Structure formats: structure tokens, C-alpha cells
């Protein structure tokens, strides 16, 4: 499956806090870096997403007295998993993994900066209707097919892939270049949900 001139490599949240040693480390998260670097050489277009939270974000367990990380609360937009404080704006944890070599990346979409709402997807905040602007960028440039890679399979990759399909983009998830958190079977659920949404899941490209 060779990427074409209208294809985009969408690199999702490959940041220090999601890699080993980070505040919200995805198991083996840094192992995606060599695969992403290899893939990037085949793409004319590359977009990165960056989790970018202000202190005291409403998705942090520390903002909800008595609540532990990975518990859930009901927010105005639905159920929200509570996380350890992570990817604070301007922090080392929010920086991209230093091993990423993507000099041709054309755009960075920052998400999660609204203190009242979390944002998993590259396309929408967690209310599933407030846009990040990525869809308009892709459409204006005539970019029609996305190859999704990064962290984490069961959260930001999943919701990005589902929303890409909902918006009409052809979507391929490269599983070898993704890693998941896997809360109570959430990776298997994410894979099923992405397939149901119409995304194509492949091991390698």
C-alpha cells in the first residue's frame, strides 16, 4: 500500500508524557518512533497532534477531590476518564519525543487546551462537535486519505480514526505504529469500533 500525493501521515500525540517515564506513559509507547520515522519518508504530507493542557484541566483527577486517576466522572459532554496531570503547556512532558524525525511535518494541531473539556480526537473536542480545524485544512489542500499512527490506540488514535471516517476521509490505521493503554479491554474495543466506523486496519505499510 504505497502512499499517494493526496495522502497524509497523521502522527497522534507522540509526546514525552505518553512514553516510558512520562506522567501518563503508554506501555512501550516509545517503540512507535522508529516505525513513524520510517513511514514519514514515504509521505508528501505529515500532520502532528499535540496534547496541550493548562494547569488544573478538568480531565485531571487532581481537579476532582477524592477521585483517583483512571476513575470516571460525568461531565456536561458525557463520561470522562480522569487522568494524572500530563502534557502541561510548555512542559517537557508536552514536548514531542526527541527521537521523532519529521522535518517535513506541515502542521501541528494542539488539543485539550480548553480547561473545561478534554480532546482526544484530532478533529473534535470530546463533545464531538467543537472542531479543531483539521478537517478544513485537509479539505482546502485536497488531502483525502489519512494514515493514523501514534498514541494511544484506544483513545486519541481511536477517536481520530472514527471522526475521520465520520467526516468522509478514507482512513487507515497502522497498528504496528500505535500502542494502547488498555483499560479493561479498551484496545480490543477500540479496534472493533474503528473497524465498524469503516477504517482500514493494517499491521504495516
From TrEMBL:
Its EC number is 3.5.1.19. GO terms for molecular function: metal ion binding; nicotinamidase activity. Residues 8-202 form the Isochorismatase-like domain. SUPFAM superfamilies: Isochorismatase-like hydrolases (SSF52499). CDD domains: nicotinamidase (cd01011). The keyword Hydrolase applies. Pfam families: Isochorismatase (PF00857). Pathway: Cofactor biosynthesis; nicotinate biosynthesis; nicotinate from nicotinamide: step 1/1. Keywords: Hydrolase, Metal-binding, Pyridine nucleotide biosynthesis. Gene3D superfamilies: Isochorismatase-like. The keyword Lipid biosynthesis does not apply. GO terms for biological process: pyridine nucleotide biosynthetic process. Belongs to the isochorismatase family. PANTHER family: LD05707P, PYRAZINAMIDASE/NICOTINAMIDASE. NCBIfam families: PRK11609.1 (NF008623). This is Nicotinamidase.
Amino acid at each position: 500500500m504505497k502512499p499517494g500525493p493526496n495522502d497524509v501521515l497523521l502522527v497522534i500525540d507522540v509526546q514525552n508524557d505518553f512514553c516510558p517515564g512520562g506522567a501518563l506513559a503508554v506501555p512501550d509507547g516509545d517503540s512507535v518512533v522508529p516505525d513513524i520515522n520510517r513511514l514519514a519518508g514515504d509521505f508528501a504530507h505529515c500532520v502532528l497532534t499535540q496534547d496541550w493542557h493548562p494547569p488544573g484541566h478538568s480531565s485531571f483527577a487532581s481537579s476532582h477531590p477524592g477521585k483517583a486517576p483512571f476513575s470516571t466522572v460525568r461531565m456536561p459532554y458525557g463520561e470522562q476518564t480522569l487522568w494524572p496531570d500530563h502534557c502541561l503547556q510548555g512542559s517537557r512532558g508536552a514536548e514531542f519525543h526527541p527521537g521523532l524525525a519529521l522535518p517535513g511535518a506541515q502542521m501541528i494541531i494542539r488539543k485539550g487546551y480548553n480547561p473545561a473539556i478534554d480532546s482526544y480526537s484530532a478533529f473534535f473536542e470530546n463533545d464531538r462537535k467543537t472542531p479543531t480545524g483539521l478537517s478544513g485544512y485537509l479539505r482546502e489542500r485536497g488531502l483525502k486519505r489519512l494514515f493514523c499512527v501514534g498514541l494511544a490506540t484506544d483513545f486519541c488514535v481511536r477517536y481520530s480514526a472514527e471522526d475521520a471516517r465520520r467526516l468522509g476521509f478514507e482512513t487507515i490505521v497502522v497498528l504496528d505504529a500505535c500502542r494502547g493503554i488498555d483499560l479493561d479491554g479498551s484496545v480490543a474495543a477500540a479496534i472493533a469500533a474503528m473497524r465498524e466506523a469503516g477504517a482500514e486496519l493494517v499491521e504495516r505499510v
